[in-house]
Amino acid sequence: MSTAVRVVEDQWYDAEAGPLVRPYALTGGRTKPGPHGVRFDLIALVLVDPAAAGGADESLLGPEHLALLGLCRAETQSVAELAADADLPVGVVRVLLGDLLEAGHVKVSRPVPPARLPDERILREVIEGLRAL
Q1: Please, is 42 exposed, middle or buried when counting C-beta atoms within 10 Å of its C-beta (0-12, 13-18, 19+)?
Q2: DSSP H/E element including 99
Q3: 3 state DSSP class of 41
Q4: Contact criterion met (CB below 8 Å) for 67 and 82
Q5: Are 111 and 41 within 8 A, CB to CB?
Q6: Phi, psi dihedrals of residue 81, rounded to the nearest 5°
Q7: I need a labelling partner for 83 at 20 to 30 A (CA). Which of 21, 35, 64, 99 fits?
Q8: What order of strands is seen across the sheet that includes strand 106-109?
Q9: How far apart are CA 39 and CA 122, in angstroms?
Q10: Alpha carbon distance 22, 36 (integer Å)
């Protein structure tokens, strides 16, 4: 079974797969975010840093970086939501977010570890107490 490949406005397209841009091309061959090896959980929340300079700094960013910033400006989103909305693999989004975090464009809030969450028994007692009022 052969798939037709065509050139449209200087971009390669595969009739079934869409644009033929490999993930490693978007990240410059990198697979881990930042020089410190920051790991982004899928549920980590990403928001644009209001103290970020913007303007001139953003002109140096690639289109994928700008797309992620645009999505974060609209509302705070998780890493998984950003990957889905930007239609990019999660690994690529993690690397690009590492770039944005390192440049000071975004802030990331890590999810609360399960050990720090309140005990379910305590929550049930609070609910029962509120119902008793």
Answers
A1: middle
A2: helix 90-102
A3: coil
A4: no
A5: yes
A6: -65, -40
A7: 35
A8: 77-78, 45-48, 106-109
A9: 32
A10: 24
The structure tokens listed for 132 are: 């008793």
What dihedral do alpha carbons 61, 65, 67, 72 form, nearest 10°? -120
6-27 burial: b if 16+ Cβ within 10 Å, else e: eeeeeeeeeeeeeeeeeeeebb
Task: Please enumerate in sequence order all residues whose Cβ is within 8 A of that of 6, keeping only pairs 6 or more positions apart, or say none.
Answer: 13, 15
Read off the tokens for 19.
């644009």
Give, for all 133 residues of the chain, the pLDDT tens digit. Answer: 444 544 445 555 556 655 556 666 667 667 677 666 677 888 888 988 877 655 557 777 888 888 999 898 888 899 999 999 988 888 888 888 888 888 888 888 877 676 677 788 888 999 999 999 8
